[in-house]
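Supplementary Methods S3. Complex input for the nicotinamide-adenine-dinucleotide-bound model.
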Amino acid sequence: MAETYFITGAQGCIGSWIVKALAERGDTPLVFDRSDDDRRLSAIMEPEDLDRVRFVVGDITDAGSVLAALKESSARRVIHLAGLQVPACQADPVGGALVNVVGTLNVFEAARTIAAEKVVYASSAAVFGLSEDDSAVDETAACEPASHYGVFKRTNEGNARVYFLTHGLNSIGLRPLTVYGVNRDTGVTSDPTKAMKAAIFDVPFHIRFSGSTDFQYVADTAAAFIACADAPLPGAHLFNLHGETVEVRQIAEIINREADRELITFGGDPIPVATELNDAAIRRAIGNLPATPLEVGVHETMKRFAELRDDVRLDTSDIEVELRLHGR
Ligand SMILES: NC(=O)c1ccc[n+]([C@@H]2O[C@H](COP(=O)([O-])OP(=O)(O)OC[C@H]3O[C@@H](n4cnc5c(N)ncnc54)[C@H](O)[C@@H]3O)[C@@H](O)[C@H]2O)c1
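Predicted complex, serialized as structure tokens:
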């Protein structure tokens, strides 16, 4: 039986890949997003799959619209991704809290009102802050976020636990780190993906951070959200996600090799988040999840960017400055 999934923020990067995977397997994704711009979905989906998708334009800060849309959808599984990224929360902490914290409460309130089966929501590795050593952190590690964004995500994790304790609402919070792939165009850690896009135009790009980080291919991240939404796992759970932890220097080298030119440089401070996450807990609880090797993920991403470029369908607004600087 086809299932309906209510997905907030699904016009964004991770959401677009979740919608694609659900539609391809015959389920019905309902996109709840304040944006009606479906360019990310169109960039990765076949038109016949896109036809399966239902859309509601709405803001998660408006409790009434969230509840009305969820009721109307008849969905039992909620995937909550809508939110603002690190720079937006740093620039406007009050506005950031309204969307990331109050908006998340609105989604949980709506979910418990309709007695939803489960909420799977995007937390973040930013709950950890920069660790003292380089070892992979698991879910027992202390959370000392170094950004308002990380604090908001940690707050959501606490609220999710309270919704289970008070109302028995099941939830799983997932903590991705540096997600990359087609449609990753917002936030500090989107630079490696922007570098891949610049490279297929033969244009240099400077990644504005250094150090190591945990690179996670977006299709794998999407698969983890879907597997959690489908898993019969009562309670309020939190899971780290892990891909491949490498230095920024190494991903720059992979992109340069793929482009067959020295186009990508990097510099600046490391991002203030633990560099590697241990994902043993989700693998124990949910089972096998895809783990695309970094070289394969970069290759797939640049291949798709090149196809979209050749079709004159590639959105380049995120690398506008670099393209203009080099006369493209
Ligand atoms: N991309 C990553 O590397 C990463 C890492 C850790 C956590 N996360 C979290 O995962 C989630 C999805 O990330 P993403 O990269 O797809 O983000 P994104 O910025 O690409 O997409 C976010 C989506 O949320 C929508 N949105 C924002 N405010 C809204 C509001 N008030 N009401 C309704 N919709 C709203 C936007 O229109 C957008 O479509 C976010 O919560 C993010 O914090 C992402």
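The mean pLDDT is 97. The chain has two domains: 4-181+215-244, 188-210+246-271+293-325.
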